[in-house]
Design a protein that fits this description.
- By secondary structure, the chain is mostly helical.
- Helix 8 packs parallel to helix 10, helix 11 runs antiparallel to helix 12 and helix 17 crosses helix 20.
- It starts with 7 loop residues before the first helix and ends with a helix.
Length: about 375
């Protein structure tokens, strides 16, 4: 699935998810009692399938030669009511290279699962390793949507949803900067009780960051935080930095509160993010004190100050309406000058000149973002 060029469709998709995800997330475990075993009606129906149903052959498109060959051998074995050699299915999955190959692979795993059920095998579902191979085949073949089927508890193919499959898809979404796919995976995870981990959160937030969708980033971060998911420290830095670069003062303070709840001390990234919020709030002297207290590495402090003076105004100014932008930037410049004066009084030496270098980054929003990313946590 190609990465979407606009964030609008992803945002619209997110509204539907995040408006209902909390209830999904919180209710799935609450509804389950350890004394109640789920009725395996699906498995019962499968075991009652007729031999004819196993033997029926579906017509499909032509796949690549190796996949076609393996598909024929596997389906021939199923029709003869015998299990094929164990290496054949993994080899087929590893050979998939097109969406048609994926269709053939899904057809044969369904046939094999039904054959095992008819033969009375207790474990009719495929192994976790086989599920991962299926997801990898879908991604490699350019068909990640088919891989989403493996995350459904009611899928007909015999795959048991697990976090490994979800993470393979989330990693693909991150590489492609595909927020829509990321949201689909997230929704499938929660709906099928594959609950996100700190590793899931890292992939989700970084996808939003790399796609440049700070609004979605905050929404997903808040959704996961509200449902009790703790993040690793670098992820808090990414979230608070994104909030500061978009000028969202309330979000900066909220994320800082999350950090404090976890007992995290300031990093350079979090200290400068809080300083940016204080500058916007009209407290440049307090911003200078935070920087002086928390950023003792002179070289790193100098780099972050350069970004704050040269590039940050371009980023935060992009969020302001055109008619008010000039006034906003002039006010921001004066505050940054006041912060610089206070830093000098505190004994901090730095190269950047808040008056001469203000908003003198590379000029465009995209280039400014690239420059800001040099100072952002990774």
């Amino acid at each position: 699935m190609p990465a979407i060029s606009s964030c609008e469709s992803a945002r619209e998709y997110a509204v539907g998810i995040t408006s209902s995800t909390t209830s999904l997330w919180s209710s799935t475990n609450a509804c389950r009692s350890p004394m109640v075993q789920p009725i395996r009606s699906h498995q019962v129906l499968v075991r009652m399938s007729s031999i004819a149903a196993v033997e029926e052959k579906e017509e499909g498109e032509v796949g690549s030669p190796e996949v076609e060959r393996l598909y024929k051998e596997l389906t021939d074995a199923v029709q003869q009511k015998r299990m094929p050699e164990s290496h054949m299915l993994p080899t087929l999955l590893q050979s998939c290279a097109t969406p048609t190959d994926v269709k053939l692979a899904l057809d044969v795993v369904d046939r094999l699962r039904r054959l095992k059920a008819v033969q009375g095998q207790q474990k009719a579902n495929h192994s976790r390793h086989m599920a991962q191979l299926m997801v990898e085949a879908c991604i490699r073949s350019g068909d990640p949507q088919s891989a989403l089927k493996t995350l459904s508890k009611k899928n007909r193919y015999g795959f048991t949803p697990c976090i490994d499959q979800a993470h393979l898809l989330l990693k693909h979404a991150l590489v492609e900067k595909d927020t829509k796919l990321m949201l689909q995976v997230f929704k499938a995870m929660v709906a099928n009780e594959v609950f996100p981990t700190p590793g899931s959160a890292d992939l989700i937030i970084r996808t939003c960051k790399d796609a440049g969708d700070s609004e979605l980033l905050f929404r997903m971060a808040k959704e996961m935080h509200m449902n009790g998911l703790s993040f690793k420290q670098p992820l808090y830095d990414i979230i608070i930095s994104a909030a500061a670069n978009s000028g969202d003062v309330n979000q900066v303070h909220e994320v800082q509160k999350w950090r404090e709840e976890r007992g995290f001390s300031h990093t350079t990234a979090s200290a400068f993010s809080l300083a940016k919020a204080l500058v916007i709030d009209g407290k440049p002297e307090e911003a200078a004190i935070i920087i002086d207290d928390q950023c003792k590495d002179a070289e790193k402090r100098d780099m972050y100050l350069g970004i704050m003076v040269k590039v940050w105004p371009l980023l935060v100014g992009a969020k302001v309406d055109e008619e008010g932008k000039e006034t906003f930037l002039q006010d921001l410049k004066e505050k940054l000058i006041a912060m610089s004066v206070k830093l000098s009084q505190l004994g901090c030496n730095f190269k950047v000149d808040a008056n001469e270098d203000f908003a003198k980054g590379k000029g465009s929003k995209s280039k400014a973002q690239e420059e800001a990313d040099l100072a952002a946590p990774t």
